[in-house]
Amino acid sequence: MPLIKYNFLPDIFIHPNTRKLGTIYRPYVLVKIGDGNKWSGNFIKALIDSGADHNVFPSSFAAEVGIDYTKGEYKQIIGVSDLPIDSYVNFAKIKIENKEIETVIQFGEKIQMPLLGREGFFNYFDYIKFNAKKRFLEIKY
Amino acid sequence: MDVQIYRNNENKWIATDRNYKKVLLSNKNLDKLQSSIKKSKIRDAVIMFVPSFNSTLAPQCL
Lengths: 141, 62
Prior knowledge:
The structure holds two protein chains of two kinds.
Chain A: E1 3-7, E2 9-14, E3 21-26, E4 28-35, E5 38-39, E6 43-48, E7 55-58, H1 60-64, E8 73-77, E9 85-96, E10 99-108, E11 115-116, E12 127-131, E13 136-140
Parallel strand pairs in A: 6-11, 7-10
Antiparallel strand pairs in A: 1-13, 2-3, 4-5, 4-6, 4-9, 8-9, 9-10, 12-13
Chain B: E1 13-16, E2 23-27, H1 30-40, E3 46-49
Antiparallel strand pairs in B: 1-2, 1-3
């Protein structure tokens, strides 16, 4: 059974106590999105987010593969803020390594960080396992 | 991976090589970055958003 392994990737982070610059490791993966036979030309660094219900991506990625995202069903996204974000639910494909899934992505203009959520990403795999101590994740299918 | 490539790109969209060694292009606006990528005919680069260094990423729900 195929197993995809990604090391967590570092971002720059200001430590809240020392105010010094450091690194914080986050569970990112590289994906391409597609529609029909068309795929994005470059890899998109997306955050694996077990707290996200669905996949959410900036709308610019939809245009690249020819998806008119505003034709999708309108939905608001809420999170830790009281301000909802507008999004549109669209059928799309996501490719990670050699695995392609046909799923749905919510595209929105105000979305900055591409997120891969439980319904639409996690549920296509046998498991997604995080090892925060050793800073890696495994995706099995 | 050298995070120093992020230092001058806080809150920007960047395109890097697959090894995250070099920033190929950057822009605060993803649409504009995508246009530049298209003009430059760059392929198989990594497109990413560099979050604010003082931010915490929190989960989203619907």
